[in-house]
Amino acid sequence: MHNSIANEPLASPVFREKPKWTKEEAEAALGFVLKKIDENLEVFSRTFPDAASQGGVYPAVDNFEWTPGFWTGMLWLAYEATGQDRYRETAEKQLESFYDRIEQGVHIHTHDLGFVYSLSCVAAYKLTGNEQARIYALKAADLLLSRTFPKAGIIQAWGDLNDPNQRGRMIIDCLMNLPLLYWASQETGDLRYREAAVRHADQASRYMIREDASTYHTFFMDTESGAPLRGTTHQGFSDDSCWARGQAWGIYGFPLSSRYTGNAELLERAKRLGHYFLNRLPADFVPYWDLIFTSGAEERDSSAAAIAACGFLEQAEQLPVLDEFRSLYENAALHMLKSLSESYTTADLPNSNGLLKHGVYSKPGGAGVDECTIWGDYFYLEALIRVTRNGKAFW
Ligand code: GLY
Fold it and tell me: Quick check: 298 and 313 in contact, CB under 8 A?
């Protein structure tokens, strides 16, 4: 039995109306993104933009950590949206490093393999039928599956499965990694991947959502007994605050699981997370880095707005036409996108190789604060394509 969670009414009437933002303006925003990608194509053909920029400029890095798939995913989105071969050719050059990463065992003991391989290898396979990419995406799914604790029903986020500091920790971000498992079951007919994903989504919805519909960033389970232990934060303000990007991962991640499973309860809970998020936005619809802040001088996290915009669009797509919130969620996404396109892009920073300013990687960690973030750029592009084309996300 799931705990009951609040269903806050939407406080602001603003979401009842679409913003004044035309198709031409959205196309112009997309045009700016494609121009930036073009400028970066050569530099980032064998390397990747780092997770966050430094002074608005991404250093070039190797395939490591959780973020290289975002740049490759942007190339695939650009290819899908335009049909231009230069995007496909650059993405294909990059696939080699995703294969090597698995062969050489570079930073593969992490749940983030979903972020990394969904947007690179799964996208390549879905768009171009690349068989080698399919093989490596399935290897990544195997590695992800090996991180499950059956008794607790969760996938451990980071580190060695026997590390006492990490053992049994799930994190809200992991919802975005589950589509790799759903896809692997569809491809192979082996239901173990799907069962692990279903169980993890269910446990996350049970334990990571608080009664007020805010979320914990991370939650520890007892891997022997399966009992819930405690919620803690990693990148949020405090253990009992609501990290804005974590809430956004839930707003998008739960509906991704409901899309694959048809579990309407997950969609319903995502709606409630969404209302909590929308009710804490400042006037320009871009949240502070933690939703404990609703005004003042703390930094915004533009990436949380971009992720949430995709999440609201995904929710709207799954809701019946007559659902009272369907158009409100589309409007919410458009309000966020309009604001990002008008006030958060690097259009006024010609030396920047990023797209969206004012993201925050980790405020407590002092990393990437008030910088471009490569996932913020990715989700901004994905959202723009969702509202201007019938493009399919790769999740
Ligand atoms: N998944 C890590 C982050 O959102 O910073």
Answer: no
